[in-house]
Amino acid sequence: MIELKDVHKTYTRKGISNEALKEINLRVEKGDIFGVIGYSGAGKSTLIRLVNYLEKPTKGKVFVDGHDLGEYSVKELRAAKKNIGMIFQHFNLLESKKVFDNVAIPLVLTKKSKDEIRKRVMELLDFVGLADKAGSYPSELSGGQKQRVGIARALASNPSILLCDEATSALDPQTTRSILQLLKKINAEYNITIMIITHEMSVIQEICNKVAVMEQGRIIEQGSVLEVFGHPKHLTTQNFVKTVIQNSITDSVQKTIKREPGSGIYKLEFIGQAASEPILYKLIRSYDVEVNILFANMTEIEETTLGKVIIQVKGETTEVDKALFFLKNSGVGVEEVEKHDVNYSFN
Ligand SMILES: Nc1ncnc2c1ncn2[C@@H]1O[C@H](COP(=O)(O)OP(=O)(O)OP(=O)(O)O)[C@@H](O)[C@H]1O
Predict the structure, then answer these.
(1) Ligand 1 centre and the CA of 44: distance in Å?
(2) How far is CA 114 from CA 43, 102, 152, 156, 251, in A?
(3) 104 within 8 A of 123, measured Cβ to Cβ
């Protein structure tokens, strides 16, 4: 549906070149909510602006619905862009026009009749929950309401793709949630493919099914949100994931741990079914080991539960080995953090 193949983008100004994007390869399937995350300057805005050809690649190709945007004539490109709506961090509404007229802009440009325009605009305002604000000016609206108007305007021309450029970055957490829920509804009810760029991992966690992580103009990691949140490989991704999923023992618990011979500390990962079964209970009942929970966290991603637990296990080596085998056999990810065998010295 959207595909970027070996895309590079270099800005050149006054003889100085800045390589904003390097070797970008990504594919967004129809119906995806695809998130692109990265720190400031990573190249996110440049990337999303390539999808509606607000920027042209220096090298490589951008395909939308199988068509190379670089091959289109000006007229064909204009038609293709109608299929791609966009919303912005600062909403980009016309302050001098009423809400109704802001939403009507794309329709007026298509020369539809007044009645058709009125019907469509009111339908859209109703969908975003602002039917009663048609006669208000943007300055009379809250940030969340302004973004709803931006969304209604972006949907006016019935696009099959919606691009969101830091669409919730100027909003408080509660308003962010309501806008993200609205985007989810748009994706589900209108089957609109959504591409979101953000610097907040919570946005990715809340609505995306796929994610690409960017750093210094490159995609350093990409995959399903569950895959990337479950096993972040790159340090930058791990730092992003840490902002939403804590996965380490707190300092006060650290101080209480008795690192005795015959004990070990293990990180466990429970995904989906494994997170809803009484596996630790069975482990304690079936094996002669002491289990102490040092940390536990459950998160919901892509409607799947992801559990991170850190335990200390103490017992005879053979019993501990059997207990760990039982965990792995039950679909639990097991990673040894530290192990103190019987010859462990405390100095
Ligand atoms: N029009 C431009 N001319 C020259 N350089 C640009 C232009 N737009 C972006 N850049 C440069 O390209 C790089 C990537 O910028 P970009 O805005 O895409 O990153 P970003 O990840 O969206 O950052 P932010 O979150 O701060 O907006 C930066 O080094 C930036 O200075």
Answers:
(1) 8
(2) 41, 15, 18, 14, 65
(3) no
| Ligand 1 in reach of 41 Cβ (< 6 A) | yes
For 239-274, write each residue's pLDDT tens digit.
999 998 887 888 888 888 888 888 899 999 988 877
Token pair, residue 265, equals 């500390």
The string of pLDDT tens digits covering residues 163-218 is 999 999 999 999 999 999 999 999 999 999 999 999 999 999 999 999 999 999 99
281 lines ligand 1 (CB under 6 A): no
Sequence ranges of the domains in the chain: 2-242, 251-340
Burial class (CB in 10 A: 0-12, 13-18, 19+), 264: buried
**Same fold yes or no, 2-242 and 251-340:** no
C-alpha 286 – ligand 1 centre gap (Å): 57
Class of the 2-242 domain? alpha beta
Ligand 1, atom 2: closest residue by C-alpha: 11
Tell which atom from ligand 1 comes closest to the C-alpha of 217: 14
- The ipTM value here is 0.96
Confirm or reject: Cβ of 42 under 6 Å from ligand 1: yes
Going from the Cα of 100 to the center of ligand 1, the distance in angstroms, rounded, reads 33
Going by alpha carbons, the residue nearest to atom 24 of ligand 1 is 40
pTM as predicted: 0.88
CATH architecture for the domain at 251-340: 2-Layer Sandwich (3.30)
